[in-house]
Design a protein that fits this description.
This protein is an alpha/beta fold. 61% of the residues lie in helices and 13% in strands.
Length: 294
């Protein structure tokens, strides 16, 4: 009986902890979700501006964007950068492992093509996983995914932008688990560089354009915009990831709280049965003792 009581107390304490963690994650999720929504609007507008300028150049200039390194697709890359974002903490279900699996799949694909990969990690869980499995990390940072910071994010991805510009790498991928809604996370495997021009429409005259710049300034504007485009994609990945992390942890803690509640019920039933058996045994012993005294 004492063992069962001890188990009930232990599970009840765990239930209180998981419930508190769920409430904390819910509060954090609301703030992170709001920031993610506002950041998504900015990212979409930046992508729209980039697409418009690139579309102008693609259609109005001889050769289009073929001579621009940031838009030139390379069929046989020699080296690529893969940046992944995971959480610094666990207790969030399959949130981290989904990202890790996607990175492993991408590494395998490039290995089969004999392409060298520089793996760069953000987040303690992912970094520790690949170090434990003796996968070489070119660069890593621990406390950025839990507290997204624009300056640190820009600094982290700056070397990849410069190396791409200098032809040291031929592609840049970002892999992270993003926020879709309160109950769902969405895995993203994005090829940030070179920029995909397939979705760009030709813009020869733009009566409804949001931009008022001269045609000859398009390339200058594009060069200054492309770095900001890559930097903000990195920063947005961090914001989106932290919102998804809180969503996943909220779900995991809710499930853990429910499981603990069910376990307490089962233990309580088990305790009551054992108690009844003990009482019955004692009564039988008393009655037997009384009968033997007659």
């Amino acid at each position: 009986l004492k063992d069962i009581q001890r188990k009930i107390k232990s599970v009840s304490n765990t239930q209180k902890t998981t419930r508190a963690m769920k409430l904390v994650s819910t509060a954090k999720l609301r703030r992170a979700e709001d920031l993610a929504k506002r950041s998504r609007l900015y990212a979409n507008k930046m992508n729209q501006v980039l697409a418009e300028i690139a579309g102008r150049i693609e259609c109005n200039k001889v050769g289009g964007l073929d001579d621009n390194r940031f838009f030139k697709s390379i069929d046989n890359p020699k080296m690529v950068d893969i940046i992944f974002v995971t959480a610094d903490k666990g207790l969030c279900g399959g949130f981290n492992i989904q990202t890790i699996k996607a990175v492993k799949k991408l590494l395998k694909e490039y290995k089969e093509k004999n392409v060298k990969v520089r793996l760069r990690g953000i987040g303690k869980k992912g970094v520790e996983f690949f170090k434990y499995n003796e996968v070489e990390l070119f660069d890593s940072v621990i406390d950025l995914s839990s507290k997204p910071d624009k300056q640190r994010s820009d600094k982290f991805i700056e070397s990849s932008i410069e190396d791409f510009k200098d032809s040291k790498i031929d592609a840049l991928h970002i892999v992270y688990n993003g926020f879709k809604n309160m109950m769902t996370q969405e895995l993203h495997v994005k090829k940030i560089l070179p920029v995909d021009t397939n979705s760009f429409d030709c813009v020869e005259s733009e009566p409804k354009s949001m931009l008022e710049i001269e045609a000859q300034d398009d390339e200058k504007m594009l060069d200054s915009l492309i770095s900001r485009y890559v930097e903000y994609n990195m920063y947005y990945a961090l914001i989106d990831s932290v919102a998804a992390e809180h969503s996943a942890r909220m779900q995991a803690m809710d499930a853990a709280t429910t499981n603990a509640k069910e376990m307490v019920k089962e233990l309580q039933v088990k305790y009551n049965k054992a108690r009844q058996e003990a009482i019955t045994t004692e009564l039988i012993e008393i009655i037997s003792g009384m009968e033997s005294m007659k």
